[in-house]
Amino acid sequence: MSSTYLGLPSFPVAAAESTRDEQLRANLRHATHTIRAKRATAISELTDWPELRAAGAAIKDHTLAHLDHYLLQLEAAVTAAGGTVHWAVDADDANRIVAGLVKATGETEVVKVKSMATQEIGLNEALAAEGIHAYETDLAELIVQLGDDRPSHILVPAIHKNRHQIRDIFSRQMAAWGRPAPDNLTDTPADLAEAARLHLREKFLRAKVAISGANFMIAETGTLVVLESEGNGRMCLTLPETLISVVGIEKLIPTWQDLEVFLQTLPRSSTAERMNPYTTTWTGTTDGDGPTDFHLVLLDNGRTDTLADSLGRQALRCIRCSACLNVCPVYERAGGHAYGSPYPGPIGAILTPQLRGTTTELDASLPYASTLCGACYDVCPVAIDIPDILVHLRERITEQRRGHALERAVMKAATWVLDHPSAYALARQTATRTRHLHPTELPAPTPAKAWSNARDLPRFPGRSFRTWWKDRPAGEAPHGRPAREDTTR
Amino acid sequence: MRVALFLTCVNDMLYPQTGRAVVRLLERLGVEVDFPAGQTCCGQAQYNTGYRRQAEPLVRRYAEVFDGYDHVVTPSGSCVAMVRDNYPRIAARAADEGRDEGLAGAAAAAVPKTYELTEFLVDVLGVTDVGAYFPHTVTYHPSCHGLRMLGLGERPRRLLQAVRGLELRELPGAEECCGFGGTFAVKNPDVSAAMGQDKIDNALSTGAGVLCGADNSCLMHLDGMLRRQDAPLKALHLAEILASTEERPYMAAETTGKIR
Ligand code: SF4
């Protein structure tokens, strides 16, 4: 994956830092709770939501099961419509292909439609190394780019910034990238949007090359689909002469009829709208209408490996709506940067370790970044059982990574004790007999110190349930099994 | 009807008063309860931490220990969710690996007879007024497993509303996770504590004297924070409230604080 994400700390270390950032916590809490409530309302309007959700999952599963077939169908259709299809095995491969295509046009500037796939491969940095400037045109991506920052949310990459911070970024940085921000820029949303509009308009009118991703690719006709709110995508997809789209191979659906399901579930799940303002579709090239040169770069980058895991492959159903982020209590406190990839939140915790593997501390810590509360699964419009996959990936990590030797030994010993009632009884009795020696806090550095930093340890009871059960006199209560006088004492 | 209590390892070790309350409550409702001594733990900690195969002996143990009972009742939603959702998965994954080792049969036997306490009361016994008396203000935290995996819905609150003397106060943000999450509390202690703090702040904002839940693991985490901060709120298992009557009112166990 992108070099932007190399050498980052593990999730608990990064999250320890970010949870202390009061401003960030307040920004995220406000933003996620607002969208959470709106989404719930938008979904509640649909009486057939469970069926739509099941249909979305079934369409994706079917496509993934026959991915080779549909990819070849797509390639044939795109080619027949005047486009060129490229296959990229990994991020380097994709970046090389895109840089080569841009260079062939003789241009050194490109405009970009918001795209997760190009974030994933670190395309902007790769193009910069080749002397090509890539300009983000999505408002939130623009804020992130001007601020030399990283995105922290799938849909709202600058969710961690409030409008005062955005005003400062615009005033300070716009001049270095093109048209400067107006003097005395205020932090009202209208003024900020106008500043961005003026800054971007210049780029749209000048650009000869655009780069996009896609929300869906329709195999039967070779059509690509982008859903957006701002219209900036539409500008990029129609004005330039050359369009290069980098799309993960799992974005495929077989037919236009299948699209009908996702056009209902995606906007409601992501922006809580019944329908998004702009849906752009294009099929190859059309004379006198839009780009005259179209390239589709199909990206694998770990997806076929993910597909090989019968349980983990569910993650490839994801339509990047970000509903799971918005309901996730861990994301809300830790923020998106702690996940160390363009895919934060619950989906990132299951996708990143599958796409990148679990060789780094960060990637191996992601499946543990969850309480398994299940809120993500409840809202996912393609019914990805995220908690189940998290547990599955934890198993992969405990089996493959060193450093889990002690934990493994403890678990083994615990299971042995729990499977031998006499040993279990002895452990219980020992805990009870020594209870007056137990502290309420622990000195560093024990693993349980992490517990007692914020909480008192529970106290062991003097009399166990089993002793009470054994000693209960018969005769008083119904069925000859009385409760003692002071049973709750 | 042969009914067994599955106490769970957390209650066995730390919260015997919850087990006593379940027995007392069920006996008051005319149910004969048994406690098979060979029971230990459902295997949830092993499974959720990524040691699926370590949970397998405990799946078989559970099925053996509770063989012959019509119903197994437990005061822990997360343990019921473990049995109901994960025992079949454990069996299925063993089958994928070409093994059975009694797991499919054990899961099939365990799942249909296992009930969370409020399910057993409302669905099997058909009662919501259990004749309890508890003259305190209470707010209820529906733990995630009860809420989302088991779908307990209104059952716990209906039971609480029928308790004489009890004033139920709505908990803001009730559906949000408390941040316990088993090993999450030690692997991600900062996020866990931040979530716990928000939960207890919400609970304190109700002005209630008791924070009630139906899962002692979550309550252990919340109560640990409340005690550390010397907050005027006591975490208490639902069973202990339902067991309390006018004749035999609730008395705090020696290991827990008083209701303020
Ligand atoms: S995992 Fe589901 S809820 Fe999360 S972004 Fe993907 S489709 Fe949306």
From TrEMBL, chain A:
InterPro entries: 4Fe4S_Fe-S-bd, 4Fe4S_Fe_S_CS, FTHF_cligase-like_sf, Helical_ferredxn, LUD_dom, LutB/LldF, LutB_C, NagB/RpiA_transferase-like. The gene is lutB. This is Lactate utilization protein B. Residues 401-472 form the Lactate utilization protein B C-terminal domain. GO terms for molecular function: 4 iron, 4 sulfur cluster binding; metal ion binding. PANTHER family: LACTATE UTILIZATION PROTEIN B. One of its GO terms (biological process) is lactate metabolic process. The keyword Transport applies. Residues 468-489 are annotated as: Disordered. Residues 73-298 form the LUD domain.
TrEMBL record, chain B:
GO terms for molecular function: oxidoreductase activity. The keyword Oxidoreductase applies. Residues 3-83, 138-223 form the Cysteine-rich domain. Its EC number is 1.8.98.-. InterPro entries: Cys_rich_dom (IPR004017). Keywords: Oxidoreductase. GO terms for cellular component: cytosol. The keyword Membrane does not apply. This is Iron-sulfur oxidase subunit used in L-lactate utilization. It comes from Actinacidiphila cocklensis. The lineage of its organism: Bacteria, Bacillati, Actinomycetota, Actinomycetes, Kitasatosporales.
